[in-house]
């Protein structure tokens, strides 16, 4: 079997001190390795355009990184039988919610650090309002599908409830959300299910059993009453069920509002290998100067090398085209299967405007700035578009490697990537695995800085 198939054949040892945790300033001073016809030249980005012929179309990814790292508090629904005060339900430890992408019908894909079950609810403050994030589905790969929502004023869980009601006996979030000890469950709806809990008092058990029996008749279920009670208790944690029964009036946040929330409450999602929290200057450093379409959770890092003056020179002297590929969290997911062809690569949203697509298809010589631009171009080519009538929009899951080489792109500006990564295999798809590892060995010997804030290489 070819070594190019073996995951271990894409491994190399990188000293920790070569992992860049901040960018070089000015940008032109970053090191640049030129690979041309088997020859390696060492220079800096100041000399970049001296190595790119004017007849190349330069393709850039104009995606913009969103503040994808949210921190929210989990609601302790198990405590609802003790208190109806929101502050008493909020667990003190904040949990990280890493936003991945918008799906459809205002549902979103996220990763939640730590254990998170179906129907779990998290909350955070946004514009003096409690925003709730509920898990509505769990994918096989561990990703969570969530909805972001607020509640209408009459049902809102105000953060100052405790202050408002400390001198009264009415500590209910709302009568429709309150489970009294003398709960009357003669209503055929789940009127008070939000406050049902596994530790409901003895006084409520009989009523709960009756309610469960009625509920199971509606579902033609003949399980015993203990199982029925358990089922209703599970439903009690399901806000979606309550909303369907119109017991809660929920304001689902649109995609635009979720992006606005992320911008205000979220943090720049620095890659985990930087091993540090983001700081204010990362909001600028981890964003290309031509980024405009929000949606990425990681930067297309080759684009970070362009200063204002470099980009101005590019626009004035080269034909260029923009694509939009929103980099997903899967870009950091390691390959674990020993045969690389068994790897199922992540999908990412890709948009190429009609005019830009025409430029790409008509060009004979293309230089892509970054692996995301290259994947976009190769995705377009494989779409087999005979005649472009509209913008090209879809999910990009192309996995470029030595067994699936590029059909159009022969030149690439890129950073230095992680061992055993799909991006390292992408570089190998152009010049071969052995040459790629030879270049990396020389880059390490010359103290090139690796990864997102690191130096770059030009294959041309």
Protein described:
The protein has 460 residues and is an alpha+beta fold. It has 2 domains: 3-66 and 274-459, QueA-like, CATH 3.40.1780; 69-255, Thrombin, subunit H (Beta Barrel), CATH 2.40.10.240. Helices cover 25% and strands 23% of the residues. It has 12 helices and 18 strands. Strand 1 (31-36) and strand 2 form a beta hairpin. Helix 3 packs across helix 4 and helix 11 (422-431) packs across helix 12. It is globular and about 65 Å long. One of its GO terms (biological process) is tRNA queuosine(34) biosynthetic process.
Concise structural overview:
By secondary structure, the protein is of the alpha+beta class. It contains 12 helices and 18 strands. It is globular.
Task: Write a concise keyword list for the protein shown above.
460 residues, alpha+beta, QueA-like, Thrombin, subunit H, nine-stranded mixed sheet, 12 helices, globular, transferase, QueA_sf
With strands numbered from the N-terminus, the spatial order across the biggest sheet is 2-1-18-17-15-3-13-14-16
The CATH fourth-level homologous superfamily of the largest domain: QueA-like
Count the E strands.
Answer: 18
What is the end-to-end distance?
A: 30 Å
Secondary-structure element pattern, one letter each: EEEEEHEEEEEHHHHEHHEHEEHEHEEHHE
Protein name: S-adenosylmethionine:tRNA ribosyltransferase-isomerase
Region (Disordered): 204-229
Pfam families: Queuosine_synth (PF02547)
Biased composition (Low complexity): 210-229
